[in-house]
Amino acid sequence: MYGKGILKGLSVTWKRFWDTYTEDISWMVRGKKRYNTQEGIAHRSSKDTKGIFTVQYPEEQLIQPEEFRYVPFLVYDEGEEGKKEIRCTSCGICAKVCPPQCIWIVRTNDPSTGRPVPVPTNFYIDMDICMNCGFCAEYCPFDAIKMDHDFDIASYERNVYNLEKLLKPASYYNSIRPENAAREDEARRAKEALKAAKAEAKPAAAA
Amino acid sequence: MAAPASTQTVDLVARFPDSVSADARPGYTGFIVKKENLLEVATAIRDEFGYDLLTAVTGVDYIAENKMEVVYHAYKTTGGAGLTFKVQVDRVDPVEVPSVVGIWAGADFQEREAWDLLGIKFTGHPDLRRILMWEGYEGHPLRKDWKEPFFEEEAKPFKSRWPDGQHTFAENKNPFRDNLKFPEGFDPEAYQPENEDDLYASLERFRSKGENDRLKTDHIVVNMGPHHPSTHGVLRVAVTLDGETITGLKPVMGYLHRNHDKIGERNTYLQIIPYTDRLDYFNSMSNNFGYVTTIEKLMKIPVAERAEYIRVIMAELSRIQNHLIFIGMLMNDLGTMYTPSLYAFEERELVLDIFEAVSGARMMCNYFRFGGVVRDIPDFAMQKIKDLVFDRLPAKTDEMERFLNENEVLVARLKGIHVLNAEDAIKYSVTGPVLRAAGVPYDLRRAEPYSVYDRFDFDVAVRHNADMMDNYLIRFDEIRQSLRILEQAIKQIPEGPINSQKPAYQVRVPAGEAYGRIESPKGELGFYVVSNGKPNPYRYHVRPASFVNLQAVESMCIGAKIADFVALLAMFDIVMGELDR
Ligand code: SF4
Ligand code: SF4
User: Fold this and answer.
1) Where are the alpha helices (DSSP H) in A37-81?
2) Which CATH number fits domain B1-133+137-193: 1.10.1200.30, 3.30.70.260, 3.30.479.30, 3.30.460.80?
3) Of B124, B416, B467, B538, which residue is the least packed, with the fewest Cβ within 10 Å?
4) What's the pTM?
């Protein structure tokens, strides 16, 4: 019969239409909210979601996985009296690995000796050129540069971030990437312990 | 496990002792053919040795040796290793090499590209015009002595970035026009765009040979695109019409050209990976796959066992979402606005969720590294993959088929509209689903297995009618096969490290050349890389499936109705990011 295929197809759209509303109603009956809640969004991006599962951006946002990356930022540890202990040593690896070459680093030199000091005088990243690849964070040996989750940075000007604008506290980093931060802290502690043990062993051996 | 280096199965030197010699440079393979004998040798390669598919043609500018080289990669559609042969000519303009279009029609666009970007003139080419740049453009950008307008240094990393990097906008440092080269006597103020006589003249060739004797009709030229919703991006197609019938057709491309090859040659090996994401932006995982396999071939390093499986999982998930989108977009092209394509996009979103969880980005994944991948799949993402592969995607594929396959309007539009027969497809170097829908079971995962594809049990999807319906249905077949591969990969994936190498931001690549290829969802995606031992590739060339496949569009559409053209074009599943590079 001509039209059977069309009707068969329409049954699929009809089912989707039906599912969309029955899903909403069943959530309502169970006293839960399908929209604007983390639970609702998580369910809508799981395999069991039925009907239309649009996430109503910007009122709602998809849950960002820990690895989500947008633009980089620099991490500082909070020292005493709010002193910012910048992790970056201005070693320049991130500037070298950056594919579009959008990182500029001014290394600090000791004025008396002229020797480099492991802290950047300034640090620029051209966020309009950054291709969000994550290489800088991946290859930084000091866990000093990390990828941010905050993607609302559209503006009318060109976004060149300097050191001041790039710095964010370690607590912020820990909050957006808890697992990574814990793993890295662990590795750093182990490394320091090893170093301390070695330093201790040295005078002992000398004695 | 890297595939064994392609062994030379033919002894071309024995057959042509006077005109062919083996390429003896360290790290190189293949044969060097004398320019005068190229056509004779090429004919023998095709007819006597059976290399019917010429996949890649490209040039290399060996400026130090004052040589230009054209490199050909020929394969057999029955599978197996390929044959590489080269022609060397002096680097004195005009650089001339005989065209092999008469032997493999599939050399057409790639020779035009080599002419455009490297300035190699292919004598005997029927339509040697620029292809990515515009007529009237000065210079050949891939030559080693050509510099781009915002040129800073020969190779990255640039010295100005560290240790005393002061931020400057590139456009301030190199104001517009300061380092542009113009032809002599050219006045940019008085510039008028070239007229396009050449393009239209090339259309003339097809102006109806058997004149319509009943009624004298005029042919009209219709330009579709570059801003046309159905050309899948900024592709422009000039068509001549006799009534509703297409009598001539020429694609015009390059509107999204950014010289990916040149960018690659300025980059270090690692830095290229995120750029490959931007080729076929629907399948960044496949692009990464193709590129890292090629470099691993050059570096001769093994790949971590677990990473091989992760790669396969990602590549196959990517194929599934690509084919779903293909189906959805085809429906758009046929006039079924939005519903099917949105259904396809829904499933794609779930796949992209997985990509985001493992790589950090939904589309620009940048996930593969030499020797493995960046990070392991997190547990929750693995669970999501299982949910999709074992549960949701099979059901949704069935649903999609129920939704569309029997729809009478769809069947009427697709059934019996001829796309390409096997002979033509091979002639034009078409690969991927279009070739398989013409009855040629040529799938690189089988024909020349890479990665761990030889461990999985799957069928190469083939259909035999070569019409639009088959081209459409074969995508469902491929989705099913991908799901099969995924099921096995998920079950077999071993524990272990995810990279065989220590993370390093500079890799050492020994001098030599390599051509690596994978079966991307759109066809064969190849990378030809020449290393001279420096941190940057000497030559980096992408052989995109979309670009090469598009060669067949002209002969495929002539005689078809203009109303079918959009759908015929859709069959190739072109993506401009890859086509224009
Ligand atoms: S951010 Fe890391 S890689 Fe970059 S200069 Fe600082 S310490 Fe080196
Ligand atoms: S994310 Fe990539 S492009 Fe952006 S600053 Fe870091 S290395 Fe450069």
Assistant:
1) 38-44
2) 3.30.460.80
3) B416
4) 0.89
CATH top class, domain B260-579: mainly alpha
CATH 3.30.70.3270 is the classification of domain A70-176: yes
Domain boundaries, chain A: 1-63, 70-176
- Rounded to whole angstroms, how far apart are CA atoms A200 and B477? 66
Instruction: List strand residue ranges (DSSP E) for chain A, in order.
Output: 72-78, 84-86, 103-109, 116-126, 145-147, 160-161, 167-169
Task: Give the residue whose CA is nearest to atom 7 of ligand 1.
Answer: A88
Residue A140 CA to residue A143 CA, distance in Å, equals: 6
A166: Cβ below 6 Å to ligand 2?
no
CA distances from B330 to A55, A100, B225, B333, B565 (A): 25, 35, 17, 5, 12
Q: How many CB pairs under 8 A join A and B?
A: 144
Task: Give dist(CA A70, CA A125) in Å, integer.
Answer: 13
**Which atom number of ligand 2 is nearest to the Cα of residue B274?**
2
Mutate to test the interface with B, among A10, A50, A133 (most CBs of B within 10 A): A133
Q: CB-based contacts of B196: which residues, under 8 Å, 6+ apart? A: B135
Rounded Cα gap, residues B488 and B308, in angstroms: 13
The Cα B478–Cα B458 span in angstroms is: 10
Cis peptide before B226 (omega within 30 of 0): yes
Which residues of chain B does A16 touch, with a Cβ-Cβ cutoff of 8 Å?
A: 343
Within 8 A by CB and 6+ apart from B275, the residues are A99, B260, B263, B264, B267
Kindly give the confidence (pLDDT) of every residue in chain B, 581 residues in length, as a single tens digit, with 9 standing for 90 and above.
333 444 446 778 888 888 888 888 888 888 889 888 888 888 888 888 888 889 989 999 998 888 899 999 999 888 888 889 999 898 887 888 999 988 888 888 999 999 999 889 898 888 888 888 877 777 888 988 888 777 788 888 888 888 888 888 777 776 655 556 666 777 767 777 666 777 777 776 555 455 555 555 667 888 887 877 666 778 888 888 887 888 888 888 888 898 999 999 999 999 999 999 999 889 999 999 999 999 999 988 999 999 999 999 999 999 999 999 999 888 888 888 788 888 999 899 999 999 999 998 999 999 999 989 999 999 999 999 999 999 899 999 999 988 888 888 888 888 888 888 888 899 899 999 999 998 899 988 888 888 889 899 998 989 988 888 999 999 999 999 999 999 999 999 999 898 888 888 888 899 899 999 999 999 999 999 999 888 999 999 999 998 999 988 888 888 888 888 888 888 888 888 888 88
